[in-house]
Amino acid sequence: MTAITWKINNLERQTFDGLVTVVHWGASAVDGDYNAGVYNTQALERGDSFVNYDTLTEETVLGWLWS
Fold first, then answer.
1. Is 2 inside any structural domain?
2. Would you put residue 18 in left (φ > 0), alpha (ψ -120 to 50) or beta?
3. What's the whole-model pTM score?
4. CA nearest 9: which of 35, 31, 28?
5. How many domains does the chain have?
6. What's the Cα-to-Cα distance from 38 to each of 16, 26, 27, 35, 60, rounded to whole Å?
């Protein structure tokens, strides 16, 4: 069974309002003796709702990526 681990590495944001504009993320997978990893970025656009930068969690940001 493949185990995948997701990680948020960095967030780029606008300083005047804290809007996150780019997410730097990585994922690694392990399946027995084999492993692989990926690093990527995802640009974001302003949505209908806003989450204060100081209260963001990794779970919230991963949800943005997966949706």
1. yes
2. left
3. 0.86
4. 28
5. 1
6. 31, 5, 5, 11, 20
Q: Which residue has the tokens 């989450």?
A: 51
Q: What is the pLDDT of residues 39-62, one digit of tens each?
A: 999 999 888 788 888 899 999 999
In a domain, 20, yes or no: yes
**Residue 9 and residue 17 in contact, taking contact as beta carbons nearer than 8 Å:** no
List CB contacts of 62: < 8 A, sequence separation 6 or more: 6, 8, 25
Q: Look at residue 34 in the predicted model and tell me its pLDDT.
A: 94
**DSSP calls for the chain:** --EEEEEEEEEEE-TTT--EEEEEEEEEEEETTEEEEEEEEEE----SS---GGG--HHHHHHHHH-
Range of the domain at 38: 1-45
